[in-house]
Amino acid sequence: MTGDRRSKIRILVAISAILAALACATDLLVEHRTEERIAARAATRLRPDGPVHADLTTPLAGLRTLAGDVGDIEVSAKGVHRQHTVMDVSVRLKDVTTGGDSAGGTGTATVGYDQVTRRLGALGHDGLTAGGRDGALLLSGSVGRLGLPVIVRAEVSTTADALTITPKTVSVLGRSVAVEDLVARPGASGLRDELAPRTLAVTGLPRGVALTSAHATDHGLVLAFSIAAGPAPTAVGAAA
């Protein structure tokens, strides 16, 4: 191989490396700007108390936006106010376009137990306080005419637009009793009302969004949602 040919090869390799570096830098720059615009658009729509973060999770997402394809997006926001409830929201959308469409995705809303307690209203003698431990929803307070302190373990079930909290067991004075056995005893009509299931409507959901499940954590009640393919709920794609 001649010296000129080796020099040309070295030059071509160097040019290829430079182009690759430029493409990578361009991708990162476009991706960063796209994430900023999506976060700003989401913040405008959601008006949360806390920060909004947007992440493009598809490889070379920045360069893909130049062709109108954003790819997969994760958006999170803290302190979103909806239907008199404050929650932390996270949304994951697949194959988002700059026109605002997506192939669907999932989302979660974490509601603090102070909010859950307020929505439960008069559950219990003086109102039970909601909390979570080891994945279980616990309601603590007092029930019955004697106002004895109890811990109620509850089950959470959902429909597409509502969740139901059903007390299952009551722990009092070191003993655990099934709610259905407790309320079946003579003179327990008051307890039956106090420990009746409570259904909470989940209203104001965007079109194509449905509640799929709910579970308790140590920090709040987490509601999970499915998002149908079509226009993104917060038009995050249009922000790109």
Automatic annotation (TrEMBL):
Organism name: Streptomyces fodineus
Top-rank taxon, per record: Bacteria
Protein name: DUF2993 domain-containing protein
